[in-house]
Write a structure and sequence with these properties.
The complex is a heterodimer.
Chain A lengths: L3 H12 L10 H28 L5 H36 L5 H5 L3 H20 L19 E6 L4 E4 L5 E4 L4 E5 H10 L2 E3 L3
Antiparallel strand pairs in A: 1-4, 1-5, 2-3
Chain B lengths: L5 H9 L4 E5 L3 H17 L3 E5 L3 H11 L5 E5 L7 H5 L6 E5 L2 E2 L3 H5 L4 E3 L12 H4 L4 H14 L3 H38 L2 E2 L3 H11 L5 H16 L5 H22 L12 E8 L9 H7 L1 H7 L4 H14 L3 H5 L7 H5 L1 H11 L6 E9 L3 E4 H12 L8 H11 L5 H27 L4 E2 L4 E4 L13 H18 L10 E8 L4 E7 L12 H12 L3 E2 L7 E5 L3 H12 L1
Parallel strand pairs in B: 1-2, 1-3, 3-4, 4-6, 12-13
Antiparallel strand pairs in B: 5-7, 8-9, 9-10, 11-12, 13-14, 14-16, 15-16
Classes of the chains: A mainly alpha, B alpha/beta.
C-alpha cells in the first residue's frame, strides 16, 4: 500500500520516545522519496492524458495519488523535524561536544544544522548579561548552594576544570566543588550529588 | 611540629585552598571526617576525600594527588611513622596530621616546615627532648678546624699539642658513642609501646567550638568518636571518664540554649542527653535476653559458655522478677512497668552477682518519635557496616556506606548496620564459647596463642582487623575468668585468623594482657617487626595499627617460634 514506508519512519521515532536519537534512516527516506517520484510521474502522465483526451475517469486516481503524495510529504517532514528537536535537546544535555556514538547517528546535514544551532545559541548567550555573557545551559534547576558535595561513582580519570586545576576522579572518592563545575558530570552519571 | 592555635595555624591556612582529606578506616576517623566536612561546607573550602586502608593506599593516594594539591589532612594515620621519608614529598607539600596513634614519630615532632600535628602538646606524649636525639653536625666541623690550626704551631710545642689533640679526639669519640647509645635507648623506650591518645573527632569538635560553628550533629559525632575508642578498648578507663566529663560540658551548653517553659523544641530536633546506662550492647534494639547473652561484660561475668553460667543467668533474671517471656521479646515491646525502673533493678541485682560496673557513663541521642540511639549502638552499627564481609563490596564502598550511616538522614542504613552488628556479636560470642570449650587457646610461654581454623563458622567476619581485635579482647577476658592457672592470667594474647584463602594469608593480631588498671600499651608492633625480620617471613605491615599484620600461612610456625624466643 502507498505511504507505508513513511509510516515506518514515524514508528521508528515513536519507539524511542525518551528523546534518544536513532540512526538516520537514509534507506527508508530514499524509498519514500522514490515512491513519491513514481506517484508524481504517474500523476503527471495521467493529468496530461486527462487534459488532452478529456478522460474524466482518471480524476479519482489522480486525486488518490495526490493525497498519497501529500501524506508522504507530511510524514517525511515530521520525521526530519522531530529529529531536529531531539538534536537540539542534545545540545542542552551534553554540551557543545557530542559523544561519538551520538554523532554517528546524525547525517551530514543534521551535523551542519547542529553546529549552526550551537553558534546561534552561543551568540545569544554572549549577548545577555553585559560583557561576559551568561551561560544559560547551567543551573537548569534553581541551585540551593554555591558548592556541592559529590561522590564519584566510577573511575573517570582526570578532570580539568575551567581555571586549570585538575581533579582525579577515582571511584568512591568524595569532592566538594563549585556547583557549575560538576553539573555536566552529574548529568552524565559519573558523579552523584550527596545530600546529608 | 605541634600546632599551638588550631584556628590560626590550621583552619585559616587552608581557608582559601583546596585540600585532600586522607581518612583511615576506623569510626573515630569517620566521625572526625564528618565534623571537618561540615566545617568545610560552612566556609566553602574545596576538598577531596579519599579513604585509605593502609600505608600502601596512603602512598598511592599521595602520588595521585600530589601534583594538584598542596595541603593534605591525614586523619588517624601518619603520626607514628616518618612520613617525609615514606612519601618523599616536594618541599611545598604541607601535611596536617590528626592521629590518635602514639608514639608520634620524633621526626614528625621536630620537623618545623612540612608536618603540622593537630595534637595537643600535653596529650600524654613523653616525647624525648631534641638534644637527646638530634645532634648538630657543626660541632664536629669546629673541632677539626681547631686541629688544623693547632697543627701549624712550631714543632717544639707540636708534639704536646698533638697529644692533647689526640686525647681530645678520643674523648670526643667516646662521648659521641655514649650519646648514640643513650639515644638508641631513649628511642627504644619511646617507641616500644603503642597506644592511643585523644580522639580525633574530639580535636575537630574543639576546632569547631573555637570557631563557634559547632552544632549538635558535630557534638554527637565527637561523642561517637570517643565512644569508639572505649568500645574497641583503645583508651584507659580514666581517660574515658575524663573525656566524658569534657563532652558533658558541651552537651549541657547545647541543651541549655534551647529548652525552657515556653519554647520547647520540636520532637524532630536532635536532643543529646547524658545517660548512666547499662553496659548491655544494643539492648534497646534487641531483646534484653539476647543482649545479656551477647555482651562481653555480662557473658564473661556469668561464664555463659558453661551450663552453670546459663543457670546463673536464669537465677539472675528470676531475682529481678523479670518473666522470661518479657525478656525474650523485642525491647520496645516489653511492658512499660518493667522498662521504667529497669536500670536500677538490674544494677541492684548485678551487684549481688559480682558485676559492679554494669552501668557506664555515656550519651544518648533522640530525634523523632522512633529514633533513640546510644553512642555505643552507633559505634557497633557503623563498625559492622565498615567491615561487612560482602563479596561485591570493596573496602571503599563499605567506607562510603559507613560514612553515610552517620548522617541523620540515613536511618535505614543505620538500622541495617545494627542488624549486621547483632550478627557480628552473636558470631563473636559463639566463637569465644567454642574456643574455650575446645581449649584452642594455648600458652606459648610469654604469651597465649589462638588460631582460628578455616572451617570455623563466620570466619570471614574475622578476616577484618577491627572485628578480630574485638574477638581477641573478649576471648582474653573470658579466658582470664575461666582459667585456673594464675600465671596465664597475666599473659598477652596473639590471635591468627585466615584472611585470604586464595592468596594463603592470615591476619595476626596481638593485644596486651588483661587487667583492671591496664594502660592499654601494646608492644606487639615492634615484636612482630623483629620476628618477621629475623625469620625473613613474608609479612605485610600495612595496617595503621602496628600490632596487626598479614602473614603467609606457611610462615606461621617459624614466625611464632621467633616471637616466642624474642619475648622470653
Amino acid at each position: 500500500m502507498f505511504c507505508e514506508k513513511a509510516i515506518e519512519l514515524i514508528r521508528e521515532l515513536h519507539r524511542m520516545s525518551d528523546g534518544q536519537l536513532p540512526a538516520f534512516n537514509e534507506d527508508g527516506l530514499r524509498q519514500v522519496l522514490q515512491e513519491m517520484e513514481a506517484l508524481y510521474e504517474q500523476n503527471q502522465s495521467d493529468v496530461n492524458e486527462a487534459k488532452s483526451e478529456g478522460r474524466a475517469e482518471l480524476i479519482p486516481s489522480i486525486k488518490l495519488r495526490h493525497c498519497c503524495l501529500l501524506r508522504n510529504q507530511r510524514c517525511v517532514t515530521a520525521y526530519l523535524y522531530d529529529r531536529l528537536l531531539r538534536i537540539r535537546a542534545l545540545r542542552w544535555e551534553y554540551g557543545s561536544v557530542l559523544p561519538a556514538n551520538v554523532r554517528f547517528h546524525m547525517c551530514a546535514e543534521e551535523l551542519q544544522w547542529f553546529s549552526q544551532y550551537k553558534k546561534s545559541l552561543a551568540s545569544f548567550m554572549r549577548s545577555l548579561g553585559g560583557d561576559e555573557g551568561l551561560d544559560i545551559t547551567q543551573d537548569m534547576k534553581p541551585p540551593k548552594s554555591l558548592y556541592i558535595e559529590v561522590r564519584c561513582l566510577k573511575d573517570h580519570g582526570e578532570f580539568e576544570i575551567d581555571d586549570g586545576t585538575v581533579i582525579l576522579l577515582k571511584k568512591n572518592s568524595q569532592h566538594f566543588l563549585p556547583r557549575w563545575k560538576c553539573e555536566l558530570l552529574i548529568r552524565q552519571g559519573v558523579l552523584e550529588h550527596v545530600v546529608s | 611540629m605541634f600546632i599551638a592555635d588550631i584556628r590560626k595555624d590550621f583552619y585559616e591556612v587552608v581557608a582559601n585552598q583546596r585540600v585532600v582529606l586522607l581518612v583511615a578506616p576506623d569510626i573515630d576517623a569517620l566521625c572526625a571526617c564528618k565534623i571537618l566536612q561540615a566545617l568545610f561546607h560552612c566556609d566553602q573550602i574545596q576538598y577531596t576525600l579519599v579513604p585509605v586502608t593502609g600505608w600502601q593506599d596512603l602512598g598511592t593516594a599521595f602520588l595521585e594527588h600530589k601534583e594538584q594539591f598542596r595541603y593534605f589532612v591525614l586523619i588517624n594515620c601518619g603520626a607514628n611513622v616518618d612520613l617525609l621519608e615514606m612519601l618523599q614529598p616536594d618541599d611545598d607539600s604541607i601535611f596536617f596530621i590528626c592521629d590518635t596513634h602514639r608514639p608520634v614519630d620524633v621526626v614528625n615532632v621536630y620537623n618545623d616546615t612540612q608536618i603540622k600535628l593537630l595534637i595537643k602538646q600535653d596529650d600524654d606524649l613523653g616525647v624525648p627532648s631534641y638534644d637527646d636525639i638530634f645532634r648538630d653536625e657543626d660541632e664536629e666541623g669546629e673541632d677539626s678546624g681547631n686541629e688544623s690550626d693547632e697543627g701549624s704551631e712550631p714543632s717544639g710545642k707540636r708534639r704536646r699539642f698533638d697529644e692533647g689533640a689526640v686525647e681530645r679526639r678520643i674523648e670526643r669519640q667516646r662521648a659521641k658513642r655514649e650519646w648514640e647509645a643513650r639515644r638508641r635507648e631513649i628511642l627504644f623506650d619511646y617507641e616500644q609501646y603503642e597506644y592511643h591518645g585523644t580522639s580525633a573527632a574530639m580535636m575537630f569538635f574543639e576546632l569547631a567550638w573555637v570557631l563557634t560553628k559547632d552544632t549538635k550533629d558535630m557534638l554527637w559525632w565527637a561523642i561517637i568518636g570517643l565512644t569508639d575508642q572505649w568500645v574497641h578498648d583503645k583508651i584507659t578507663n580514666m581517660k574515658y571518664v575524663t573525656d566524658i566529663a569534657t563532652m558533658q560540658r558541651h552537651v549541657s551548653r547545647h541543651n541549655h540554649r534551647n529548652e525552657d517553659e515556653e519554647n520547647s523544641l520540636s520532637i524532630d530536633c536532635m536532643r543529646i542527653s547524658f545517660e548512666y546506662d547499662l553496659r548491655l550492647t544494643l539492648y534497646q534494639h534487641w531483646s534484653l535476653y539476647e543482649s545479656i547473652c551477647n555482651s562481653c561484660y555480662t557473658s564473661c561475668s556469668f561464664k555463659l559458655w558453661t551450663l552453670n553460667g546459663q543457670k546463673k543467668l536464669q537465677e539472675f533474671l528470676a531475682d529481678m522478677g523479670l518473666p522470661l517471656k518479657q525478656v525474650r521479646q523485642k525491647f520496645n515491646s516489653m511492658d512499660m512497668s518493667i522498662k521504667e525502673n529497669l536500670r536500677d533493678v538490674i544494677e541492684e541485682s548485678s551487684n549481688k552477682y559480682g558485676m559492679k560496673d554494669i552501668r557506664i557513663q555515656t550519651f544518648g541521642v533522640h530525634f523523632g518519635f522512633k529514633n533513640r540511639f546510644l553512642a555505643s549502638d552507633m559505634v557497633h552499627a557503623t563498625a559492622a557496616l565498615l567491615e561487612s564481609a560482602e563479596k561485591d563490596d570493596s573496602e571503599t564502598d563499605n567506607f562510603i556506606k559507613a560514612l553515610d550511616a552517620l548522617s541523620r538522614s540515613n536511618i535505614d542504613r543505620l538500622h541495617s548496620g545494627i542488624e549486621l552488628a547483632k550478627k557480628k556479636l552473636i558470631a563473636i560470642q559463639q566463637t569465644v564459647a567454642s574456643c574455650l570449650c575446645t581449649n584452642l587457646i594455648l600458652s606459648q610461654g610469654p604469651f597465649l596463642y589462638c588460631y582460628l581454623m578455616e572451617g570455623t563458622p563466620d570466619v570471614k567476619l574475622f578476616s577484618k582487623p577491627m572485628a578480630l581485635t574485638l574477638l581477641c579482647k573478649y576471648l582474653l577476658k573470658a579466658f582470664v575468668l575461666s582459667t585456673r592457672n594464675k600465671r596465664c592470667k597475666l599473659l598477652p594474647l596473639v590471635m591468627a585468623a585466615p584472611k585470604d584463602v586464595e592468596k594463603g594469608t592470615v591476619i595476626v593480631v596481638g593485644i596486651p594482657p588483661e587487667s583492671e588498671t591496664s594502660d592499654k600499651k601494646n608492644f606487639f608492633g615492634r615484636a612482630f617487626e623483629k620476628a618477621a625480620e629475623s625469620t625473613s617471613s613474608r609479612t605485610l605491615h600495612d595496617h595503621f595499627d602496628t600490632s596487626i599484620i598479614e602473614l603467609k600461612t606457611e610462615d606461621r610456625s617459624k614466625f611464632l617460634d621467633a616471637l616466642i624466643t624474642l619475648l622470653s
